[in-house]
Amino acid sequence: GKVAFIAGVADTTGYGWAIARELANAGATIVVGTWPPVLKMFNMALKKKATDEAKKLDDGSLMEIAKIYPLDAMFDVPEDVPDDVKSNKRYAGVEGYTIEECVEAVKKDYGQVDILVHSLANGPEVTKPLLETSRKGYLAASSASAYSLVSMVQRFGPIMPKGGAVISLSYVAAVRTIPGYGGGMSSAKVRSTHPHLEFKHAPAFCVDSHLLRPKAQLESDTRTLAYEAGRKYGIRVNTISAGPLKSRAASAIGG
Ligand code: NAD
Questions:
Q1: The pTM of the whole model exceeds 0.95
Q2: Is the model's pLDDT at 254 over the cut of 70?
Q3: Is 237 helix (H, G, I), strand (E, B) or coil?
Q4: What ipTM was predicted for this assembly?
Q5: Poorest-confidence range of 18-22, 29-33, 138-142?
Q6: Closest CA to 197 of 221, 170, 232, 222
Q7: Alpha-carbon distance 223 to 195, whole Å?
Q8: Which atom of ligand 1 is nearest to the CA of 13?
């Protein structure tokens, strides 16, 4: 069977989980990469009976996650991890979570990955308008949400077979302004459930948030990565522009 690595799963409400379920339905072995700060919580939730419903596959069996790897997509190699992260209690007891170490561990356990799913995004200043966003916050959003895909394709590429597939999740606002998003009635619901679109008091028609630019980068990078990794490894690289979903990330930002 095929091995699918899904980066960015920490609960049952996001896109990562839903994609994992569909791949499990199709018979793939599911392994996931989970952000260290939410790893313990996810492990605990998985043990609870209440999670069984979300695990249920089409044939009535329960999805098994073969292995959960800690993964912080902000860091490529161990040297990248700053001391304040190393000593942060949310990372206590967790090791080997840089992208390179994660790929090494997956390679050791499974030899190869047929399907790579990038289902993560983050931005420390996500609730701020661009006019108030710091350089640090801007670059951190790009690092976590866009460069993370580039780094993952660089490092997973060598352990993916020809014909393997990489997929990430984008959003339509990366390429198009959506009239009324800022304050229009029709958009109110979408805004309140969408992670990349706006804080509550946005001026009308302002669709900027510093997670939108990383999505534009992600889409542009996908084209280049498809070209380069297609030639180098014979793998496909695509992104899906997903609709609004009330995931944990979305709820945390949009309320
Ligand atoms: P989610 O909360 O289920 O997934 C985001 C995940 O990213 C979380 O598990 C979080 O722990 C993880 N993460 C954050 N920072 C990380 C880091 N540095 N390293 C590793 N993991 C990290 O929310 P979601 O909305 O399902 O998001 C999944 C993807 O779908 C994201 O790329 C998001 O932008 C995209 N998307 C979401 C929507 C929506 O409406 N929810 C719409 C279009 C696209």
A1: no
A2: no
A3: strand
A4: 0.99
A5: 138-142
A6: 170
A7: 24
A8: 3
The 10 Å Cβ neighbour count of residue 149 is 25
Catalytic residue among 69, 91, 147, 181: 181
171 in active site: yes
Query: What domains appear along the chain, each with residue ranges and CATH number?
Result: 3-172+210-243 (3.40.50.720)
45 lines ligand 1 (CB under 6 A): no
For the chain, the residue count is: 255
Longest alpha-carbon distance in the chain: 52
Considering 113-122, 130-139, 171-180, the range whose residues carry the highest mean pLDDT is 113-122
Amino acid at 148: S
> From the CB of 242, is ligand 1 less than 6 Å away?
yes
- pLDDT over 90 percentage in the chain: 72
CA of 196 to the centre of ligand 1 (A): 10
| Rounded Cα gap, residues 114 and 162, in angstroms | 9
Work out the pLDDT band at 115, boundaries 50, 70, 90.
Answer: very high
Using a 6 Å cutoff on CB, does residue 106 contact ligand 1? no
Report d(CA 129, CA 104) in Å as an integer: 39
> Distance between CA 151 and CA 158 in Å, rounded?
12
Note if 110 is an active site residue: no
